[in-house]
Design goal:
Largest sheet: 6 strands, mixed
Strand content: 15-25%
Number of strands: 21
CATH class of one domain: Alpha Beta
Number of helices: 12
Strand order of the largest sheet: 15-20-18-19-16-17
CATH superfamily of one domain: DNA methylase specificity domains
CATH architecture of one domain: Alpha-Beta Complex
CATH topology of one domain: Adenine-n6-DNA-methyltransferase TaqI, Chain A, domain 2
Radius of gyration: 29 Å
């Protein structure tokens, strides 16, 4: 079904007018309110920065509070009002809207504008519209600044919003409510699916960790401890800088796969250990030709240490705990060589590796599905949002 036919069905012949935001409600620019003003309890407070870091499209409870004394000096936010950000370090977060649904009156401060919707505007309908490319293009026209982007309340008031049946406020709000209902439903379904996948991932991770603890603890066996230097052919740092050009050979860094190149500097069935930074100690297993950044250690197990068993064993040890340095954690090759592990017979290593590989594959499959599914759902949501809010402008109809 096309955009126009779908909207014709929804509107049932009523007219749509594009009206400036200033015609649709009262806009009040906030002032004051800093993070240092927050208290553990008191009057609900909405800080502009939290609108694009903490909240979604609407909220009935605030993250922060201020004292009643300070609240008397700040702009008031009533139930149904919309708080709009005026300032951010990027254009995307400027103009982000939060509908306040709380029963207790809240307050807000500077870098935010309060929209008190009039009789022809539903706050959440407007909030959804602020997510569209149409609104983005409009706010871009009025944006000022480079490092800090600002769209003033005065300029925000000039942005036009499509209003169905503006001469009949009751009918107009009914149509807006139906659009909001459909978008809310789709958003809820997306959230439910994400929650289900996240819960499944958590279960898989717990299963993997359970069997790691069970299979890699050899307390009841008298096994000899071996240093990694004794059961590897080499432990050495990569020599190359990061490469992210197109090619057939994967390039690994401290976070895992970071790109490709056509030049293979290394090959084999080895382990890669992040050497420096927040990911120091992270373990990856690599087979075949590859290249690495110079912040990665290459660990080559010898014939006595099964490489897949070694992967699970080192990953389970949490090598990050051995990193030195506070500001820039570092895992050195020398440190790895001195670490000791217990080494069961090769047949037992292979059996353990097979079990943990299966569990690891199940866990990784869910991990890979999550971002792909989230991206797909986001595209579907944007499609239906734009379908429901894609009203043609008068000039487009004339053209």
């Amino acid at each position: 079904m096309s955009n126009i036919s779908f909207m014709d069905s929804l509107l049932d012949g009523v007219a749509v007018e594009w009206k400036a935001l200033s015609e649709l409600g009262e806009l009040v620019r906030g002032s004051g309110l800093q993070k240092k003003d927050f208290t553990e309890k008191g009057v609900p407070a909405i800080h502009y920065g939290q609108i694009y870091t903490h909240y979604g499209l609407s909220t009935s409870k605030t993250k922060s509070f201020v004292s009643p004394y300070l609240a008397r000096q700040l702009r008031k936010v009533n139930q149904g009002d919309v708080v709009i950000t005026n300032t951010s370090e990027n254009l995307k977060d400027v103009g982000k809207a939060l509908v306040y649904l709380g029963e207790q009156q809240a307050v807000t401060g500077g870098h935010a504008t309060i929209l008190r919707p009039g009789s022809c505007l539903l706050g959440k309908y407007f909030a959804y519209f602020t997510q569209t490319s149409e609104f983005f293009g409009e706010k871009r026209k009025y944006a000022k600044g480079t490092k800090v982007i600002d769209v003033s309340a005065t300029d925000m008031a000039k942005i036009r919003i499509p209003i169905p049946c503006p001469d009949n406020p009751k009918k107009s709000l009914e149509i807006q409510s139906e659009i909001v209902r459909m978008l809310d439903t789709f958003t809820e379904l997306t959230s439910e699916l994400t929650a289900e996948l996240t819960a499944e991932l958590s279960i898989r991770e717990k299963q993997y960790n359970y069997y790691c603890n069970r299979l890699l603890s050899f307390e009841e066996q008298e096994l000899e401890w071996k240093t990694l230097e004794m059961i590897t052919t080499s432990i050495a740092s990569g020599r190359n800088k990061v490469r992210t050009t197109e090619g057939a050979v994967p390039v690994y860094g401290s976070t895992g796969l970071i790109g490709f190149t056509n030049e293979a500097a290394y090959s084999g069935n080895v382990l890669l250990v992040a050497r420096v930074g927040a990911n120091a100690g992270r373990v990856n297993a690599v087979v075949g030709s590859f290249d690495v950044s110079d912040n990665t250690l290459i660990v080559r197990p010898n014939e006595a240490w099964n490489v897949r068993f070694a992967f699970h064993q080192l990953a389970h040890m949490n090598l990050n705990q051995y990193a030195v340095g506070a500001g820039q954690p570092l895992v050195t090759g020398g440190l790895l060589k001195s670490l000791k592990v217990q080494l069961p017979p090769m047949s037992e290593q292979e059996r353990i590796a097979t079990v943990l590989d299966k569990l690891d594959t199940l866990t990784n499959s869910i991990s890979e599905v999550l971002p792909r599914e989230a991206a797909l759902r986001q595209k579907q949501y944007e499609y239906y949002r734009d379908l429901l809010l894609g009203f043609p402008k008068p000039e487009e109809i004339t053209a």
